[in-house]
Each structure stands twice: as C-alpha cells, then as structure tokens.
Design goal:
By secondary structure, the chain is mainly alpha-helical. It has one domain. Helix content is 80%, strand content 0%. It is built from 7 helices and no strands. The longest helix is centred in the last third of the chain and has 30 residues. The protein starts with a helix and ends with a helix.
C-alpha cells in the first residue's frame, strides 16, 4: 500500500512537471522549438529529477519498486510524446526512435537508482547520483574539457534527442539502432545482473 502511494505521488509530480515545462517552453518560444525543449525537460526529469528524488529518500527499496517507477514514468510520457509528434510534425519512425531513446537511457538511470537504493548509506546514494549525472552529461563534459567538439554524441542521449527532434525538413535518418540498442541492452543486462544478485543475497540471508 505504501509503495503504491509513493508511485501515485511520483506520477502526480511527473505530470505536474511535464505540464509546467510545456507552459514555460511555450511562453519563451514558438511551438516547434518549444516541442524540442519540452522533450529535453522530460529527459531532465527522467535522468536527474527522478534519481534525485528517490536517492534522497530514507530507507531501502526493492528493485521492483524502481521498475514500477520507470513503467509509470514512461506511461505518463506516452501521453506527452504523441501529441508532441503532431506539433513537431515528426515522422512515425522518428517518434519511435525518440521514444526508444528516452526509454533506454531512463531504464539505465533506473538501474543506477535501484543500485543506490539497496542500502541506506549516504556515500552510496551520492555515488549513484553522480553516476546518473554522468549518464546524461558525462560525454559532453568530457568533450568540452578536451576540446573535442566534432562528431556525434553517442554515449549520451543529449545529441540523439537533438537530432531526433529536428523538423521534418532538417531531419536525417541515421543508424539509431547502435547507440539506442546498446543503451537498452546495457540496461537489460544490468537489471538482470542486479536481480540475480538480489535473489542470491536474499537466499543467503534466509539460510
């Protein structure tokens, strides 16, 4: 019951975040650029605000709770991305790849959150939050510090989202399967390993 209540609170907060982001982006820009900034606001919510919220909460949590969070967040996001498709005039493949990009990297973020919530220790939670920030900003920060500005961003969703939210006249279909598929595969493998560890640890405790 408590878990369901926290998920409902998360869903409500997520909905309010998205509504507020849409209002702000429309106020500062025209509809088509606002669509792009709206997706970035959603990406920030999934990869920064969500982990910040969960990792700051006291107590440990089961892996299923974080997975339930992710499913809820992505379901609410579906009510946003498909209307945005009409506003941005994206193609159907473009929208599906954008959806997959958001899902893959947020699932990776969820993996880090689940790892951090295993124990109620500030050092572990802080390390997990740093890892979440690194997933989003690590590659751009590394490029900025080394002076490498050419080439696509494949290890961060920032560059992918930028290209996938282009208007149809500027959008160029690329091989999205490698970066998006790699992120999704890494998330699935990581969740599998973390689930195996949790199951083994529970079995050892019950012996």
């Amino acid at each position: 019951m408590a878990e369901a209540s926290t998920v409902r609170g998360l869903a409500l907060g997520w909905s309010l975040w998205l509504l507020g982001a849409w209002a702000v982006t429309l106020a500062i820009d025209s509809t088509v650029p606002a669509v792009r900034w709206m997706v970035y606001a959603a990406l920030m919510g999934l990869m920064l605000i969500w982990p910040m919220l969960r990792l700051s909460q006291r107590g440990t949590a089961a892996l299923a709770g974080t997975l339930l969070d992710w499913v809820c967040l992505m379901l609410v996001f579906q009510a946003v991305i498909w209307p945005l498709r009409l506003s941005g005039d994206w193609t159907m493949p473009q929208t599906w790849w954008l959806n997959a990009t958001m899902g893959a990297w947020s699932l990776l973020t969820g993996l880090v959150i689940a790892w951090g919530r295993r124990v109620d220790r500030g050092s572990i939670r802080t390390l997990a939050m740093v890892a979440c920030v690194g997933l989003l900003l690590g590659e751009p920060a590394l490029r900025a510090s080394t002076g490498i500005v050419s080439g696509d961003l494949w290890l961060s969703p920032l560059g992918l989202v930028w290209q996938l939210t282009e208007s149809p006249t500027h959008y160029v279909a690329q091989r999205w399967a490698m970066p998006v598929g790699s992120a999704g595969a890494a998330a699935l493998v990581g969740w599998g390993l973390l689930g195996w560890w949790a199951r083994s640890h529970l079995r050892d405790v019950l012996r």
